[in-house]
Amino acid sequence: MSSLRPYKPPPPSYAFGYKSPPRSGDDINGLGSTEKRRAGYVFHNAGSARLEWQALDDFFGMINPWPVVRHVVANAWQLRNRNGAVNRTRLEVTNPASMAVQIKAKAHELGAELVGITEVSEETLFEGRSAPHRFAISIGLSMNREEMQYIPHTRAAAEVMRIYREISLISIKLAKHIRKMGWPAKAYGNPNSTDILHIPLAIKAGLGQLGKHGSMISREYGSNFRLAAVLTDLPMALDEPVDIGVDDLCLQCRRCVVDCPPDAIFDEKQMVRGVKKWYVSFDKCIPYFVKTYGCAICIQVCPWSKPGRGPSLSEKLLAKRAATESVTRA
Amino acid sequence: MRTIDHPARSRRSLFRWVRERFRLGLRIAGMVLHYFTEGRRIRKAYKHCEASGDTFWVDESMPGER
What we know:
The structure holds two protein chains of two kinds.
Chain A: E1 16-17, H1 25-29, H2 54-63, H3 66-78, H4 96-110, E2 114-119, E3 135-142, H5 145-148, H6 154-180, E4 185-188, H7 198-204, E5 209-210, E6 216-217, E7 225-232, H8 246-250, H9 255-259, E8 270-272, E9 275-277, H10 282-291, H11 297-301, H12 310-329
Helix pairs in contact in A: 3-6, 4-6
Chain B: H1 14-36, H2 38-52, E1 56-57, H3 58-61
């Protein structure tokens, strides 16, 4: 464990559990399955249906301390404005590329640090859910690194929920701005209750790549950020997924694997619902996640999350790959 | 702590607008009340289990499961 972190993570032993264990979360997630299908709800969900792991999810909500929960409550209240009336006078869009630039500038003006635009697709929606609009603006906001050094601790958990609350407000304001232009738009700023899969959406929108720890790594902030989105029909030019060299790092680096107390991170990519990708064992991760009010060790120990390191790390990794490829070709 | 989502409506009357906000406020107030009442009991029972080395069975002790 890092000597820089002021709080020592507790061991992966639990004073809670299931008398009758539910179906494996890894099984529900489709670990080892070659069949292509959408992701299903396991832990957090958007509806009233009870999930396999509902009892643990409810327990998680109840043991979280008030400094964390107060942000969840405030976010739930502010999200009353996530949708609303659309201006009857519609601004016609003749240049989607210019509109994308305008919307990104507005998102940055509102406080978003990462912005990307993509089209909503099957892999970005939970099973049984649909999207009300065609396009998605994925936004990211970084967390206070000093507070996050307290992982896994309520202090870091409070920072996570504060950022979710803040980015949620940014998405609400951005959606309102688009509705004023005469186009429907809905904000998706709730981490616990949503129809969309924020990470696949953000990756598709070019915000970053999936890391070994199952979270997205962005060029600028590593994994030290949280996501929200706005879904709209406003025509905009779309972004493409990026290659910033994440695989080049993750294939060699074992920092998150070594630092994960419940050993939930795999060394190799796994087959998950027909796609080979980085995956974190749900069954091992979630009990520790619950015990530590959201853990987040893996995203903080990731070398890419060190402030200011990402861009140069990306450049080095891509240059190294290009050099290796040119030698192989020669 | 569950949060709320519902289908979007593009145009709403003032009455519906007020009713929706009232309902949401009521649900959130219910969630907060639940957190401080039932949640207090759960947190206390869990702390007791942690101290005594017992296990808090979530599938038996959580309100929705009983």
